[in-house]
Design goal:
With about 240 residues, the chain is mainly α. The chain has eleven helices and no strands. Helix 3 crosses helix 8 and helix 8 packs antiparallel against helix 9. This is Phosphoenolpyruvate synthase.
Length: about 240
């Protein structure tokens, strides 16, 4: 059975979650601390689970709110939300382009995340779990990337089980930046130290550049999709 186009599009949008490399850096720091990797797994799995819950809620409840009904054509509500998310990501893109190229996690990083990085060595497992579960709701930029993928899945012609599986897979792709280090730690516990250290150095050096490329692309795609929907409605 071929994969529906809406699911493939949702997966493509979910790749945008890779631009949030700060969360991957949090996992890498937690994996490297002397207390063991427990807090890293608690944070990562809670973070992934948070996006699964958001996705399931959006697919099974939000569909009626957003009036996602393919048989009636484009919805003004959906088009408006898509345009709003595109504008939000455009503003985030401007902020990212004004950021120094290698500021993430550096010694001069006095942002909220910079303060978080400074406290990770002492983060208890329970707080790591709670932080991971709360972060998907607090990160507006990530929600602006993720919600259009959820809207596409809500509009796809799938069984309830198919929609649930599509949400889980989309959340896994979206959270891939921090799930991959955890998977490496599980599969290669004795050889992973050098790989994870190299990954951390790369993220610290290139995270801003990655966001500067991915965020504008998603913003343009959302603006184009929302604009085209309004054109179909009112042209």
């Amino acid at each position: 059975m071929p994969i529906p186009a809406a699911v493939l599009q949702a997966w493509a949008i979910a790749v945008g979650g890779m631009s949030s490399l700060a969360t991957a850096l949090i996992v890498l720091i937690l994996l490297n601390r002397k207390r063991g990797p427990g807090a890293a797994f608690a944070f990562g799995l809670a973070y992934f689970g948070g996006y699964v819950v958001i996705g399931l809620t959006g697919v099974f409840v939000g569909a009626s709110v957003l009036e996602l009904d393919l048989s009636t054509g484009p919805s003004p509500t959906t088009a408006g939300v898509t345009l709003a998310l595109g504008l939000l990501l455009s503003a985030a893109s401007v902020r990212v382009w004004r950021r120094p190229p290698a500021s993430l996690g550096g010694e001069d990083d006095d942002s909220f995340l910079g303060q978080v990085f400074a406290t990770l060595d002492e983060l208890p497992l329970a707080r790591a779990l709670g932080f991971g579960a709360a972060l998907p709701l607090l990160n507006v930029k990530n929600l602006a990337i993720y919600l259009p993928a959820v809207a596409l899945l809500a509009s796809a012609e799938l069984t309830p089980t198919g929609r649930a599986l599509a949400v889980v897979s989309s959340a896994a792709i979206f959270s891939g930046g921090l799930l991959i280090p955890l998977l490496i730690r599980v599969l290669f516990p004795r050889r992973c130290a050098d790989w994870l250290a190299a990954m951390r150095r790369w993220i610290e050096a290139h995270a801003t550049r990655v966001a500067q490329v991915i965020l504008p692309c998603i913003a343009v795609a959302l603006l184009a999709r929302g604009g085209w929907s309004f054109w179909q409605l009112y042209a």
